């Protein structure tokens, strides 16, 4: 019976506990209690002086003996217990449906979303997220808890004035440094998987080196990769990957190195050891991890028309639907369909350069649209005069077709950090540079000692 009394008291506490946004109340009132603090405070008060209303309304609501005072762990169990009713956001759900499943109506939705601080954030929900509801003893909605992500929880609590306040809790993950090395046997993708890198990290690695390496043609068996990166942990378990701190790729005997650096104005990018940006004016290839079916050849025999026609570009064979990227920043000057080209997109880059993308399955850019490097402008297909799914890619400089594989040597130089920035840059990358050197030499012991961490891979 004491447990029943305690549960009722806690329900009242949770329903009446004042809460609010720390930011909103900073000037007018002290910081409000958290949900758990409010429950603990009211529980302690009730244990000394039980509510007269509770005594008069039920014969069993008597003052509990001192030994019945709840332990802290009991309070925590009650707060996280059955009072909060969890609802998982389903595909096609809206707030009205979710509130209805929990036993509440559109009036409650309006109160929380439009009358509470930051309430409109609750409208941005996605399948798989959790929304929890707290019901007061009188059946009214006392609180809503929205788990936006493992790192962020927002709680809306009804106060004594009947209005909802907001409490936002943002957790900071633990950052751990990790590193790995690998060797190309067939492709960057397979090597990355063997190294334990996620697909996202493999694609990020390709983006970093995309201005100096064509990952379709350039990699060779025996090429080596070294990566120093962050991993984020929550409660001792890996939550997700963090940033790549530094990486090196040795391709056919030539080593390319990249370091992550935030400059004095807050811009983050990757640079080589000399402070030259890894981001070039154009990508070496507008698709990733595919194979070339036909190289640049001015006397190529056309596979359909069986005549010798100039092949003023490079064909990247890939499955239908493979994303096609804008090779550089620019404006779409043409996007349409023709019988020989199929679906196509032409992009103007400044005054001198044009890139063309033919035989697309889908166009995802419109004429006049501005695009940035690596934006998806379409997908690989076999429209027009094509024998199979592939991207035909052309590069024109001053109106003349150039070999996309070699033109990069004639393109403008990449951005370089100013001399005033170099001392800070060199100081910032020194630890990562030492780690890469240890990885490249195979001296993992030195790497572990330098970082003060246990061996990784």
Q: What attributes characterize this protein structure?
A:
single chain, 457 residues, alpha+beta, Nuclear Transport Factor 2, Chain: A, Glucose Permease (Domain IIA), 3 domains, ten-stranded antiparallel β-sheet, five-stranded antiparallel β-sheet, 11 helices, 22 strands, 24% helix, globular
Describe the 3D structure:
The chain has helices at residues 2-16, 22-25, 35-48, 52-57, 72-79, 95-101, 106-115, 188-194, 199-208, 422-441, 444-451; strands spanning 84-88, 130-135, 141-149, 152-158, 164-170, 174-183, 224-234, 237-251, 254-262, 268-271, 291-294, 297-301, 308-311, 314-317, 323-325, 330-338, 342-349, 353-363, 370-371, 376-380, 390-397, 400-402. The protein is of the alpha+beta class. Helix 1 (2-16) crosses helix 3 (35-48), helix 3 (35-48) packs across helix 5 and helix 10 (422-441) runs antiparallel to helix 11. The strands form four sheets. Strands 11, 14, 15, 16, 17, 18, 19, 20, 21 and 22 form a ten-stranded antiparallel beta sheet that branches. It has a five-stranded antiparallel beta sheet with strand order 1-2-3-4-5, with helices on both faces. It has a five-stranded antiparallel beta sheet with strand order 6-7-8-9-10, with helices on both faces. The protein has three domains: 2-170, Nuclear Transport Factor 2, Chain: A; 174-280 and 417-451, Nuclear Transport Factor 2, Chain: A; 291-410, Distorted Sandwich (Glucose Permease (Domain IIA)), CATH 2.70.70.10. The chain contains eleven helices and 22 strands. 32% of the residues are buried. Keywords: Hydrolase, Metal-binding, Metalloprotease, Protease, Zinc.
